[in-house]
Write a structure and sequence with these properties.
17 helices, 348 residues, 0% strand, mainly alpha
Length: 348
């Protein structure tokens, strides 16, 4: 018979509660706020572990060759991504607690931490890689490599070679069948169709051009490059033309029942980026408040380095940029009746 489970043992509290070893105490100069500093950062690492756990589960689902977009599996993906958003919100709010430590409180133990730095959090960089940030996109690549242990660099480099969330979303979007002939496009009225374009894109290009203000006319060339031209693939882009088309269609017609979950998935990507960015910028402001223009404990330029990284590390930037090519609901082309039926909960 199995022994009873006890709360204390189940959570391994002996190990957890003995895992705080302030350096200032070890050196005989106890600094009261170092305990808070340690617990906050340990908590961050636990949340990073949970974020990685949720991300890996989402990747496992999206790796499947077929994913029904009106299924419990897609609901699970969206649910777990929404959980990730809530966790990221907590990470941002934890800075409020750390902000109760004043710069003088921090100086009581700061120099004892060198060369340790939050930049050495391999879990956070692993999370960025799993989401889709590549090494070549990272700010300060040489510094990044120098701060991690070789085994950690190898793990992250391996993650960068594996399918990421961004890459799998691209593949998922490419499988969307919206523009196949079987989706009733023969019934779609497109009065002008130069160049033999798909009728929807011929009509949508016309309506998008009409929606632009005089100062926005340059957007039409960008639209052509991203959605129309065969040579529209740009080196280094994460989303293919087919994926961009499917994503824009989802954003435009998200009111149809079958597109609810796909829209929530795309929106969750943007929310993840927003909260990652908020966390980075809260970190920038906290560093500015704590150390001003001094260098970081790990040897970085402090606030300057963090701000540059925050500006560059938007993982789902290409999804966010699709909003530049939306038009008002009143201008949207009416879809063929057969396609509207297929976008309902029950296909004819």
């Amino acid at each position: 018979m199995a022994s009873d489970v006890h709360y204390h043992d189940y959570l391994q509290l002996d190990r957890i509660l003995q895992a705080q070893a302030p350096e200032s105490t070890r050196q005989g100069r106890p600094a009261h706020d170092e305990m808070l500093f340690i617990i906050i950062h340990q908590t961050y690492e636990l949340w990073f572990k949970q974020l990685l756990y949720e991300t890996d589960s989402v990747l496992d689902i999206l790796k499947k060759p077929v994913l029904n977009d009106n299924s419990p599996e897609l609901q699970t993906v969206v649910h777990r991504m929404e959980r990730m958003i809530r966790i990221l919100q907590v990470l941002v709010h934890q800075v409020d607690i750390l902000d109760t430590m004043t710069p003088m409180d921090f100086l009581d133990f700061r120099d004892m931490l060198r060369p340790a730095s939050g930049f050495q959090s391999w879990q956070f960089k692993m999370l960025e890689a799993r989401l889709g940030l590549k090494f070549e996109q990272r700010h300060g690549q040489e510094y990044y490599l120098s701060q991690l242990r070789p085994a950690q660099v190898d793990q992250i480099r391996q993650a960068e070679q594996e399918p990421s969330l961004l890459g799998l979303v691209n593949a998922w979007l490419e499988r969307m069948p919206f523009f196949a002939p079987s989706y009733h496009w023969g019934d779609f009225a497109a009065p002008e169709n130069p160049g033999g374009l798909h009728p929807f894109w011929a009509e949508y290009r016309r309506r998008f051009a009409e929606s632009l203000a005089p100062a926005e006319q340059g957007n039409l060339a960008a639209f052509e490059n991203l959605f129309i031209q065969d040579s529209g693939e740009t080196t280094g882009t994460a989303l293919s033309r087919e994926a961009r088309r499917a994503a824009l269609f989802i954003l435009l017609y998200r009111g149809y029942p079958v597109l609810h979950l796909p829209f929530q998935l795309l929106d969750a990507l943007l929310e993840i980026d927003v909260h990652l960015s908020s966390w980075r910028y809260r970190h920038v402001n906290m560093v500015q408040r704590m150390i001003g223009a001094r260098i970081g404990t790990g040897g970085s330029s402090g606030k300057g380095y963090l701000k540059e990284a925050a500006d560059r590390h938007y993982i789902f930037r290409e999804v966010a940029q699709l909003n530049s090519y939306l038009i008002e609901r009143s201008r949207l082309p009416a879809l063929p009746a057969g396609l509207e039926a297929r976008l309902g909960f029950v296909a004819p």
